[in-house]
């Protein structure tokens, strides 16, 4: 799905799904950041770019991480501020 082809409701639903998704494994997973891991919108851009170079995880997690990476690469990280406020602020890494 390209952002140019997405309508407002689909984009709202995508942001809601991103808001509800946490990194389940790795250095930002639930073992190091219990109980659920770091929200994917608060993953460092460098970490997302590392996955982009090597391949995002398979399935919906990888798709959502790719969207977050694209948003951050465009300099639009502020798009996630309402999600952060709703969750009590930026996740402390």
Automatic annotation (TrEMBL):
InterPro entries: QSregVF_b. It comes from the Bacteria. Pfam families: QSregVF_b. This is DUF3820 family protein.
């Amino acid at each position: 799905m390209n952002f140019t082809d997405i309508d407002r409701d689909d984009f709202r639903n995508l942001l809601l799904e991103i808001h509800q998704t946490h990194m389940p494994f790795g250095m930002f997973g639930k073992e190091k950041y219990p109980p659920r891991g770091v929200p994917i919108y608060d993953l460092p851009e460098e970490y997302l770019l590392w996955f982009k170079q090597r391949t995002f995880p398979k399935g919906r997690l990888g798709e959502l991480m790719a969207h977050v990476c694209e948003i951050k690469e465009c300099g639009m990280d502020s798009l996630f501020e309402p999600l952060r406020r709703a969750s009590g602020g930026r996740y402390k890494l």
